[in-house]
Structures are given as structure tokens and as C-alpha cells.
Amino acid sequence: MPVRVLVVDDEPMVCAHLRTILDASDELEVVGTAGDGAEAVEEAVRHRPDVVLLDLRMPGVDGFAALPELVGAGARVVVLTTFDADDAVLRALGAGASGFLLKSTGPTDLVRLVQVAAEGHNVLSPEATARLVHASAAPSQARSRAAERLTVLSERETEVVAAVGAGLSNAEIGGRLFLSEATVKGYVSAVMRKLDCDNRTQVGLLAYAAGLTE
């Protein structure tokens, strides 16, 4: 069955644009749209989407206020951003968001990353991740700190971190590194433990900060 997607943005043109892209894929189905957080929760209860694409900055009930209820309803919530509010994006990731995408993400990447999110993985738009890393600290400082943290990893684990930073799923990482999906899952778990990361998003941010993924 296709991945069920709910699009939440207060700009009708943005909703229409994303619906057009996602509905063009046989693997995805937009089951509804919403213009604020309160409506998003109602639509999520009604349609039970697999993935919610959520704008954070909306009038009335904003996306950040709605995020816990959407996550609690069992949806994978991916934040949509134009990157005017980096702090809000970081807070959303800490509150359970499964990743973040720029609203300008290209159609091919958008479809692929929504599918990755539906499979239970955290997703990172490469452009969005790079901008977040550079906004959070001076590039040289961020790279130095991240590189130091990665010294505890083996060569293979570092390759896995780089692939996570590229936004790849476990299956895609296995194909790239000639490993089984189960082996990749084990490496990802080990990496998260060694790096004291709570999720794949944090691992991916480290990959970008350290310069493993450009």
C-alpha cells in the first residue's frame, strides 16, 4: 500500500505544490492537508497518516505545539523549513521530529526522503543539514569538535556515519558498502552508542559537521 502523507502548511500554494509532487509517485498518497497545528491533529486522527510534513511557523496553533500529539498518534513527523528559525528546528528534533527538509527540496529527493521516513528512519535533507550545521557554530569549530568525537569509531563505522549523513536508509547503506541490512543496523546502533547520539539525525549532523558528507 502507498505511504499515507499529511501535508501541514499555512500557505495553500505550498500544500498544493507538495501534493502535486507526492501524488505523482505510485508509492505515496496525500491523504489530507492542514493549515495549522490544530487542524493537523484533527486530520491525523481522521486519516492516520504514516508521515506528516509539518511547517513549524503557522498562525494560531503552530507546528511545534502540535508536534507531540502528532508523534503520539503514531506518525513520523518531518519538519518543513525555509530556515528562518534554526532554533525552532533543533527544538522540534528534540521533541520527536523524525528529521527536516527544506521546502525547496527537489521532487526526486522529496519522494525518496518521505519513503525513508515511512520506513522508520530519520531523514536529513543534505542542503538543510549543511545549513543547520553552519548556522549552529563557526564551520571550523564545528568540524574540529565533530572530528574529535568520531575518533572513537572504526573505519567501517565512520563509513556508516558518512552514509547516514547522506540521508541513506539501512538498505541503501548496505548496497553502498556491500553489507546486509541487518549488519548495517548493528553498525548504526553501535555508532549511536559510541557517539552518545539519541537518533540518526544527530549522527547525520555529526557527519556533516566533520566534513564526511559535503
What does this entry look like structurally?
Helix content is 56%, strand content 14%. It has helices at residues 12-23, 37-47, 63-72, 86-94, 107-118, 126-136, 139-149, 155-165, 170-177, 181-195, 200-209; strands spanning 3-8, 28-34, 51-55, 76-81, 99-102, 123-124. The chain has a 6-stranded parallel β-sheet, with helices on both faces. Helix 5 (107-118) links the parallel strand 5 (99-102) and strand 6.
Outline of this structure?
The protein is of the alpha/beta class and 214 residues long. It is built from 11 helices and 6 strands.
Span between N and C termini? 34 Å
Q: How helical, in percent, are the residues?
A: 55-70%
Mean pLDDT: 85
Number of helices: 11
Give the strand content: 5-15%
What's the arrangement of secondary structure elements?
Elements: E1 3-8, H1 12-23, E2 28-34, H2 37-47, E3 51-55, H3 63-72, E4 76-81, H4 86-94, E5 99-102, H5 107-118, E6 123-124, H6 126-136, H7 139-149, H8 155-165, H9 170-177, H10 181-195, H11 200-209
Parallel strand pairs: 1-2, 1-3, 3-4, 4-5, 5-6
Helix pairs in contact: 2-3, 6-11, 7-11, 8-9, 8-10, 8-11, 9-10
